[in-house]
Amino acid sequence: xxxxxxxxxxxxxxxxxxxxxxxxxxxxxxxxxxxxxxxxxxxxxxxxxxxxxxxxxxxxxxxxxxxxxxxxxxxxxxxxxxxxxxxxxxxxxxxxxxxxxxxxxxxxxxxxxxxxxxxxxxxxxxxxxxxxxxxxxxxxxxxxxxxxxxxxxxxxxxxxxxxxxxxxxxxxxxxxxxxxxxxxxxxxxxxxxxxxxxxxxxxxxxxxxxxxxxxxxxxxxxxxxxxxxxxxxxxxxxxxxxxxxxxxxxxxxxxxxxxxxxxxxxxxxxxxxxxxxxxxxxxxxxxxxxxxxxxxxxxxxxxxxxxxxxxxxxxxxxxxxxxxxxxxxxxxxxxxxxxxxxxxxxxxxxxxxxxxxxxxxxxxxxxxxxxxxxxxxxxxxxxx
Length: 384
Ligand SMILES: [Zn+2]
Hints:
The chain is of the alpha/beta class. The protein has 17 helices and 7 strands.
């Protein structure tokens, strides 16, 4: 009897078409071993030292366990065989296999980081046979303006006009404030003269900035965030885990309390991305603020088989209507696939156990799976 219930649930979860509400493009290029391994480490942007392999990690083991069968290899195939099979099939074919095997119908694609080397929004839709929708990165928009020398009194008007234009076909915006300033700063809307001054300072200093303008000015970051609040589209905010550029302790979403208490902000959906290791703080914020939602994407992939625990912890304080699925995959299409596999596996295991123990009704378990995997994202982003 109990076994039947678990397999019904597993069947249901396996066939649910997911909405991956925060993801980046996948590579279609061939990768050598060193390049591939670099992308299995989120924290370090540098090459993997030659005395170790990044395959010896939860993520590496999970790719060999769950990715190998997608490439017609046995589960746990050794890394060398895995990479040889990848090369044999070619980057384009590998990407199509993984994206299609993910069972995702909608990808919400952040196009703001290193967009030249990965599939764009249309490319993601075509390669996956699904739908893809753009999410506009606020900081990239500001950097575009600065590169064109827009500054002073014109900056705010031009930013507003560009934001309006860029988001015509977008379903949301995203901020990487965590990377550039941290959350433990004043996040109130800056005065117009402060924005004009800050943009002038920025543009004046650009000729000395190698690699083009990079927005780090807190005043302009706050301005971008509040311009997005006025626009009213859902605002995704990177929180928690990321590469070592970020001061992790300043990326704890609990520092956003004052921002979230602002009446204007309360009218806009705020989606906290990733959150790990602060997913419990995110769960509290999702309980405390009607407009706050969150996911545990990115971490699910990187903690591999331990994602069961992270997903269980995400199901503690937060109402189930406030949680979303994401892979936060970037680059290797294994990550777009693995996020979905590990999330399905974790949900089946965690809520399946509660049903078996008689703590949850089987129908409720199915409903919650549908909400987090799909329905909540369709509601938050206004997708039909
Ligand atoms: Zn991301």
